[in-house]
Amino acid sequence: MQQTRQHILEILREQGEATVDELVKALHARIQHNISGVTVRHHLDVLRTEGLVTEPKVRRSGAPGRPQHVYALTEKARARFPNNYHHLLQHLFQQLKARLETSQVNVLLEDVADQMATESGLAELGAIPITARLDHIVSYLNAHGYQASWESAPEGYILRTRNCPYHHLSAEHGELCAMDMRLISSLLGVVPRNIGRIAEADESCAYLIPLSPCVMPR
Questions:
Q1: DSSP 217
Q2: Residue of 157, 211, 202, 203 whose CA lies nearest to 184
Q3: DSSP-based three-state secondary structure for 56
Q4: What is the largest CA-CA distance in the chain?
Q5: Is the model's pLDDT at 196 over the cut of 70?
Q6: By C-alpha distance, which of 112, 125, 110, 109 is closest to 217?
Q7: Over residues 106-118, mean pLDDT
Q8: Measured between alpha carbons, how far is 99 from 38 in angstroms, rounded to an integer?
Q9: Extended beta strands in 21-124, E state
Q10: At 70, is the secondary structure helix, strand, or coil?
């Protein structure tokens, strides 16, 4: 990766969020030469396209003046840094499956998916066209590391996720694939048909939303 963009990711990881001006100041301290806000914005645009930085959000400060927009890392970007999450999750899953019945584990993961869907805020959008809803869903999934996209198909629409945030675990713990299906269904408000799985060596997890879909039960 281009060195300046790597510095930006590191700064956002350390600070949690930052404005363009704050990034300019932090970069100057790191690289010991001036860098313009225009250049930083260019690097942020590239990082957003790669799904590594979130869309800018307004910082609520309460102070008068022009609103400040802040940037942060996506889950995909956080996964680029060394962590022990997958080992921790592996042990947690082993303990859950050793102590609980399969049905109890499944219900627990369904509740996790439902909570994620609720926190996404998509349910508040109401009955908007499916294409607009897919746009919102793709933005939400990309912010959580899924590398999502959608396309039209003769039968309806196909939602694809080309990155599995749980790829270290999903091959051994298929319950996570079921959790993702529950999440996708809740986000869509309809039950899609799974037509591809990364865990089964497909290039993407793919969900077909037919023109006459089955409505997701509430």
A1: P
A2: 157
A3: coil
A4: 59
A5: yes
A6: 110
A7: 94
A8: 55
A9: 57-59, 68-70
A10: strand
Domain that holds residue 115: 85-215
What token pair was written down for 20? Answer: 């363009």
Cα–Cα distance list, 99 to 49, 90, 104, 106 (Å): 42, 14, 10, 13
> Tokens 């003046």 sit at which residue?
65
- Domain with residue 128: its CATH number is 3.30.1380
Stated pTM of the model: 0.62
- Measure the CA–CA gap between 74 and 78, rounded to whole angstroms: 6
Q: Which of 71, 57, 59 is nearest to 11 (CA)?
A: 71
Say what the pLDDT of residue 110 is.
Answer: 95
Looking at residue 215, its pLDDT comes to: 57
Q: How many domains does the chain have?
A: 2
The DSSP secondary-structure symbol of 190 reads E
Helix (H, G, I), strand (E, B) or coil at 181: helix
Distance in angstroms (rounded) separating the CA atoms of residues 18 and 69:
8
Indicate if 152 and 205 belong to the same structural domain: yes
Helices (H) and strands (E) in the chain, counts: 9, 8
Find the angle CA(109)-CA(132)-CA(148) to the nearest 5 degrees.
50
